[in-house]
Structure formats: structure tokens, C-alpha cells
Amino acid sequence: MGERRMACVNSMKDLANWLSSDGREVNNAFRIGIAILVAMLTASLWPAPGTDDMTAWVTWADRVSSLGLVRGYALNFMASGIDYPPAPCLIFLAAVRTAAVAGISTFVAVKLSILLFLFLTSGVFWLWTRKFRLTLFLHASLVLNSVVLGYLDVFMAPFVLLALWALSRRRFGWAAAAFSMACMTKWQPLVIAPVLLCYGIRQWREQKRRRAGAVTMLLAAIVPPLAIVSVLGGIFGVGQIVESLGNALNRPFLSANALNLCWIMTHALHAWRPDEFGGLVGGAATLIETRSALIALAPRLLFGLFLLATVFMTWKRAGSVAELVRMSLLCGWAYYTLNFGVHENHLFLSALLSVVLVSLEKEALPLSLTLVFASNLNLFLFYGFDGVGPGFNRVSGGVVDLALVVAVFNVGAFLAAWGGGPP
């Protein structure tokens, strides 16, 4: 057993070394050819229908195109209780207006905007790290979420990467601006804001001790977010933006298809309290919609405790960018694993950060593989490779729901990683 474990560890090290190398042993023409082939294969996937969210995006895009940004966002807000910040509407407007010149439908325009941001994400990552193979790994890990199923997580990805790059170069103004834009495309990056704030305060205190531009650094960190929020708030209305955040924080589902602790609770409530929550359907759990503060209390308390513990560790340990990325990853993972009302695509941020961590620490590859696998498996079990479904009954033998098995694995992997063990 010891020899097998050692062989596995060595194989993982070899894979990490291979992925983290810049690939210079391969000539540039070959790398360009591979990049073009990957781009063509990725682009060929846009016709996939995606999840039901694609219908919502097309409706939102049509509204902002026909009514304008302000009225379109307001109507989206009133019609569907929108829980998104306003930046996606800006992207949709640009995409639809550009596509209209070529007579392209709104559906295609939305898919192409998602495709563009996937390419931007890969491009920013490569320009930062110069690791060609790892960039291909990152790109492949995001394809199902983005261009196939049509989620908008990839809209925030380039901004998150730019923020981390800027922090690694101590360009705090650029970091604050990029992170603010990430939060204006999706609310999920706010989960890691406490960690980034701790890191920023540590850096500011260091600057203050050195008497080296502490005031300038403080202004650089404060002014860009205030400017971005003020501009977007002035256009779309501060009240609507704040209310959309409130909607995102108060989703009524115990677990919105996220295979996490709340999914285990969902399965248990179906099995043990069918009179109140309905029974299992063919052995499979379905969504539970509840406003019960009592049911939501335990997950939210657990998430809060893990978040506070991670922030404390950041304050004590995060002197390097790699440690900052690791702590941010754990915050995002805690949100996905423990919190109430989480959706199936919300492991995206931690999976993205895990690949960034590999670029900084090769030893993080097992952690990254775990997160990338878990993120994509969660999506596949509900929506398959096209958004329609996996094409098989996820209840194995009519007895064991694979979603429950994966949820147990995800919770165990998180606890092991947070405690410093495998993966």
C-alpha cells in the first residue's frame, strides 16, 4: 500500500511539473496550432441549448436592447426579482447590438459573449503565468460551465484574475478596480472580500511601518470601488442594485442543486419527513423551497464560523499572494459546501482560484483536480453535456442517488482540505 501511495504521489508531482512548465521545449508554431485547434473546438460547442438560464439571458438581453439599459434592467428586476448586479446587462447590450449588424439572433449573441469571456479568461491567465499547458487545463475546466451550459460565471473570471495579478504586483488601485468589476458582474466574489481586505490591511500596515506611501495606497484601494459603484448606481439606481444583492442572499431553496451539506439535508428531509417536504422521486431528491429560519440557521452558522476562521488564518498567515489565493479558495469553497441557497454552478470561483494556486504552488495540483472535477461533476449530474440532462438515471440500481454520494464526497473533501489533510 505504501509503494502504491508513493507511486501515486510521484505521478502527481510529475503531472504538476508538466502542467506548470511553460512548454518552451515545444516550438511556438506548434503551440499556436494547438491554441487555434482548442479555440475552434470550443467555438463549435456554442449551439448547445444550455440550461433554462439561457432563456432568461435571452429575455434580459432583448429587454435591454429594445428598452435601453436603465429601463431594461428595471423591467428585468420587476419581472423576475433579478439577483444579479448590472454589468451583465452592459455585456448583453454590447453583444446584441453588435450581433444585430450581422443579423445574428439574441441566443447566438449571448452565447458568443460567453465564449468571448472564456477566451479573455484564458488569455489573461496565460499573460500572467506564461504557463501554456496550465492555461489549456484552465480553459478546459471552464468550458462546460460557460459556452456549453451558458452560465455567466465566466463574466467575472477575467476581472478576478486581473485583481489577483495586480495584487501580486502591488498595484492596489488596479486590484480594487478589477475586483469591483468582478462583483458588479456576479455577487459571488464578495465571499472572498473579507480575505482580500485582511490582506490589504496587512500590506497597508507594512507600508505605514516603512513610511512608504501608505496614504496613497489607501486612496488607491478606496477610490476605484467608490467610483465604479457610484457610476453604476447612478445609471441603474443604487436601490435596485442593493435589492438585487438582497435577493441573492435570500434564495428560498435549501440547496439549489449544489451538491453540498444542504443537499444532504434535502435528501434527508425528503426521506424522513415526506409528509412535510414530499418524498424522494424514484429515489432521487428534488429541490426544497423553504423560508424557515430554523432550517437555514445551521448551514449559515457553519458557513459563518468557517468564514471567520479562514479570515483569522489570513490575518495570521497570508503574507504571500499564494497564501492569499489559498485562503480565498477556502472561503469560496466554504460558501459552496456549507451555506444555504447555493446553486450548482457556485463552485466555479474556487475551481478558478485552485488553478491560479497551481501556477504559484505546484503542490496544489491534487486540490485543484478535486475542485475542478467536483465543479464539473455537479453540473453534469443535473444537465449533462448540453443542458438537457445527463442521459441516464442518476439513481444507481434504483436505490442510491449518485447526487447524494457526490454531496458526501464534496463535504468530506472540503473538511479534509480545510483541516490541512488530503486532497
> What is the strand arrangement across the widest sheet?
1-2
The DSSP helix count reads: 19
Number of strands: 2
Strand coverage percent: under 5%
The unreliable regions are none
Summing up helix and strand content along with how strands pair, one would put the structural category as: mainly alpha
Q: For the report, how would you describe the main beta sheet? A: 2 strands, antiparallel
Give the proportion of residues in helices. over 70%
How much is the radius of gyration in Å?
A: 22 Å
Given the C-alpha coordinates, what overall shape results? globular
What do you see in this structure?
- There is one protein chain.
- Helix 13 crosses helix 19 (402-418) and helix 16 packs antiparallel against helix 19 (402-418).
- The chain starts with a helix and ends in a 5-residue tail after the last helix.
- The protein is globular.
- It is mainly α.
- Strands 1-2 form a two-stranded antiparallel sheet.
- The chain is 73% helix and 1% strand.
- The protein has 19 helices and two strands.
- Strand 1 and strand 2 form a beta hairpin.
Write a compact overview of the structure shown:
This protein has helices spanning 2-20, 28-43, 53-67, 69-80, 87-101, 106-129, 132-148, 153-168, 172-185, 193-210, 214-236, 238-249, 261-272, 274-277, 293-317, 321-338, 348-360, 365-383, 402-418, and strands at residues 395-396, 400-401. With 423 residues, the chain is mainly α. The chain is globular and about 65 Å long.
